[in-house]
Structures are given as C-alpha cells and as structure tokens.
Amino acid sequence: MPQFAANLSMLYPELAFLDRFDAAAKDGFKAVEYLFPYDFAKEEIVARLKHNGLQQVLFNGPPGDWNGGERGLACLPGREAEFREGIAKAIDYAVALDCPRIHVMAGLVPAGQQRDALQPVYVDNLRWAATEAAKAGRDVLIEPINTRDIPGFFINRQDHAHEIVETVGAPNLKVQMDLYHCQIVEGDVAMKIRKYLPTGRVGHIQIAGVPDRNEPDIGEQNYPYLFDVLDEVSAQCGWQGWVGCEYRPKRGTEPGGTSAGLGWLREWRQRHA
C-alpha cells in the first residue's frame, strides 16, 4: 500500500507554515514534505515533527533566487560555488530533521544555450552533491518537471533523468518521479511505473490531478488504478518509498478545504483497512 506524505507547501494554505504540521497529523498523515525549510530554525521544525509524530521525507536544496525566478543552480555554469554552499546547507538541515532525501533542482536553461552544452556541468555538480550527501547517509534526487509549469527547466523526461543517474553512477542519486509532470510531458504513466520502479533508481513519487494540479481524484488520471499498479510493482520489486501529495486543494484557502478534499485518501484507507 502506498505511503502518503503531505506536501506542506501546497496543502493547508490557509494556515501558517508551522501550523500545517499539526493539521497534517490530524488528517492521519505520518510524513511530510515541502519545498524549503530554510526560513525556519531547524529546532522549530524538529519540534513540530516530534510533537506530531511525523517523518520528514523530502525537501529541496536551495534553488538560487527563487523570488527572482530561478529554479535551481545545478546546470548553470559559473554558479558552482553557490551550488556547493547550498548543498552543504541542505545536508545540515537534512541531518537535523532526520530527512533521508534532498531534491536538487536542475535550473533553467539560459537563453541562447543548449541542454547538451550544460549537461557536463549538471553531471559534475550532481556527482559532487551525491558524494557529499553520501557522507551524511542521504540520497540526492532529481526531478523531471513539465514545460508548462516551468518553461525552460533543464530536465523534463523520465528517460533523461534515468540517463543522468546512470551517467553519474552514484548509488544515492535517484529520480523523483512526479506522476503529474510525467502525464503532461509523456503520458503512459502506468507503463513508466512498471519500467522504472524495479530499477531501484526511483527514490520518491509525487501525485496531483491533471491538468489543474488539484486533488488526485479530479482530472484525467485514474489514480485508484495507478495506486494499484504501485502496489503490484512495489510488491514485486520491494520498493518502499513515499508518495508525496503535491497538489493545490480545489477549495484553495477556504478553512478546512484541504481536509474536505481528502475523500480520495479516506476511501483508499478504507479499501485497505
């Protein structure tokens, strides 16, 4: 049965960030993920995790100037020193929060440059990051992101991500497989689960409804079927990762809107009680 983690950057948007831990626990989540922890002291987050009996299963490394539009530094020539500083900070937080995974955002392809020319920098940065993370017992993840939500993002397809993981050759470098992004760019999601999960190179999965990134029971994807596929393939290959609920609640910032939209999860739990 999939293990679901609440994405606190998107869920419970009517609440202050630190209060979202309490809300997730009340809704029965056992784990959380989010974009970035760096605006908060490590001790504050640890206290919220412990108080609510939650596991921290994923967060992102520093992305550069997020408010200025940057979406990662890993593929950008000339930013290697800043990238390394960010990874060191992420590892420090990961150790304090007992978080096993750090998503390293690739970044945007600069205007006038080609992906092929940037890939050596990307590979070198990932190799360094994976080596440093391994010293602390952490995994590094890379995620293909669709070209509609983040135009120009360096990595968009599952096959490209797995090619890069193979090229780097670090056992703790894995792919963050977001089924929302995968559906938009490639489709054929069930077969990609069947293809890639048994490789051992998928470290985390995320979900959202397509096309509007709302609850997984809204839109064109049949998530009950995909969850059954995950169950089947996981049983065959021994995959034991988490499934992050990285979606925008349909009822937005309405008080209790996230909880009201969790009927899909309550139904799934009842089916597997």
UniProtKB/TrEMBL annotation:
BP GO terms, sorted: glyoxylate metabolic process
PANTHER family membership: HYDROXYPYRUVATE ISOMERASE (PTHR43489:SF13), ISOMERASE (PTHR43489)
Similarity comment: family membership: Belongs to the hyi family.
Keyword Lyase: no
Top enzyme category: isomerase
Keyword NADP: no
Xylose isomerase-like TIM barrel domain span: 21-267
EC number(s) per entry: 5.3.1.22
Protein name per the record: Hydroxypyruvate isomerase
Annotated coiled-coil segments of the chain: none
GO MF annotation list: hydroxypyruvate isomerase activity
Pfam families: AP_endonuc_2 (PF01261)
Keyword annotations of the record: Isomerase, Pyruvate
Active site: residue positions: 143 (proton donor/acceptor), 246 (proton donor/acceptor)
InterPro entries reported for this sequence: HPT_OtnI_isomerases (IPR053398), HyI-like (IPR026040), Sugar_Epim/Isomerase (IPR050417), Xyl_isomerase-like_sf (IPR036237), Xyl_isomerase-like_TIM-brl (IPR013022)
